Amino acid sequence: MREQHKEDNRVQRTGRVALITGGSGAIGGATAERLAARGDDLIIAYKSNRERAEDYAKYIADTYAVQTISLPLDVTDRASVQQAVQTVSESWKRLDILVHCAGVTRDKLLVQMREQDFAEAIEVNVTGAFRLMQATLPIMRRAGYGRIVTVTSYAGIQGRSGQSAYAAGKAALIGLTKTVALEEIGYGITANAVAPSVTESAMTEALSAAERERLVASIPLGRMQTPHEAANIIEWLTSEGAGTVSGQVFMADSRTYGW
């Protein structure tokens, strides 16, 4: 997740403020570092791993000299979302960027899937994004500026055997993002989705050698994506230069439909 730095990387702060859910995970953490490197202040949101999030927030602040805090946020709890957004609003008086990286998998064949597991995947992967957008959009509207990026998946576009709950949630997330893009473009707010390839993370590291080999074999490039490769796309989509790009799904992947 962390890039190696051989020199002082302190930057001039942009004044922009970004909230990243899953901000101490693989893609979320890499995104936090990319945004900090250009001078954005950060809120690294976490659900349960407080120590990891606090450690990463300190690392970002020490490395880039941007204001960075960790913040508890459970996207399945409306009160938690509202409290977190209120804290951001009171501390910074603004919120320019929302990156929704938080997500869960509940992998089983459809015929074996428990309804509870299916509902949990939808709750985090799409309903959680709905709560976040509904809470943060009024702040962006008042400012006449905002960048929203949701992290979806190839599975939400193409489907994937054994991932009916995950794929359904990520597909719904694409529909939600595209709709928000249409509704908010008149307020200077863009909304886009990024569908990363299979990414190096704690989840993929925990796989058996055979499972990793099977995953890599499904990628024409012949290797997994690094978190920073996905984060580079998110960084651009959250920049001022991407102001005319909205309602798009960016496939950060070497696969094509039908692969």
Main traits of this protein?
259 residues, alpha/beta, Rossmann fold
Your description of this structure?
Strands 3-2-1-4-5-6-7 form a seven-stranded parallel β-sheet, with helices on both faces. Helix 3 runs parallel beside helix 4. Strand 2, helix 2 and strand 3 (68-72) form a beta-alpha-beta unit. By secondary structure, the protein is α/β, with parallel strands linked by helices. The chain contains nine helices and seven strands, in the order βαβαβαβαβααβαααβ. The mean pLDDT is 85. It is globular, with a radius of gyration of 18 Å. It has one domain (17-252): Rossmann fold, CATH 3.40.50.720. The chain has helices spanning 26-37, 50-64, 78-92, 115-143, 155-158, 164-184, 202-205, 209-217, 227-237, and strands at residues 17-21, 41-46, 68-72, 97-100, 146-151, 189-196, 249-252.
Provide a quick synopsis of the model:
Helices cover 46% and strands 15% of the residues. The protein has 259 residues and is of the alpha/beta class.
> Please, how many helices?
9
Mean pLDDT over the residues: 85
CATH-assigned fold name: Rossmann fold
Ranges where pLDDT stays below 50 over 5 or more residues in a row are: none
CATH class label: Alpha Beta
β-strand amount: 5-15%
CATH homology superfamily: NAD(P)-binding Rossmann-like Domain
Shape: globular
Radius of gyration: 18 Å
- How do the SSEs run, as a string of H and E? EHEHEHEHEHHEHHHE
Q: What's the β-strand tally?
A: 7
- Biggest β-sheet: count, sense, barrel? 7 strands, parallel
How far apart the termini lie comes to: 29 Å
**Number of structural units classed as domains:** 1
CATH architecture: 3-Layer(aba) Sandwich
Question: Largest sheet, order of strands side by side?
Answer: 3-2-1-4-5-6-7
Share of helix among residues? Answer: 40-55%
Protein structure class: alpha/beta
